[in-house]
Specification:
Number of strands: 0
Structural class: mainly alpha
Number of helices: 4
Number of domains: 1
Helix content: over 70%
Distance between the termini: 28 Å
Shape: globular
Largest sheet: none
Length: about 160
Amino acid sequence: MGFISTILFAGGSICSVRISILISLLPIVFGGLGAKHLYDCPKQPIVPVYLLVGGVACLSLQIFPIIYCSQSDGKIILPCRILNFLLLVFCPLWFITGSIFVYMAYEPNYESRSSAEFCERILYQVAFWITNIIYISIPLMLLCHGFRMYFVNRTKKEFCLSTVS
């Protein structure tokens, strides 16, 4: 049993590393897509800006602490904490604002570039589906976190009870 769990753990950790790398590259894709199609959505011009700014903000949250915040003594400097806090406040607000504009423009015209209802298909669909995925994943992550906390606390209590008796 130990050998099988070791293999599953190793495979799971390799898979989680790959998924983490892919997820960390998504802000680059979103920012690039927003920048490339910045003027390709007359129905809702904020949609490409939503992707561009969201991609840059998320990428900043990933890169900034590594480059600027790391010091040789391990202490985090105050400007770094302030900027990180501001980004952590900005990202959810930007996500909610952007999702309003994405949903307001629902089902633009993908065919006629001269139409006022036009929006580039790939741009709009990426913005729409990433917004949906985030709204779906938030409750799932909260649920998983709740289950994990419940079982961790339950295991600790059972361990304490079994050692006392």
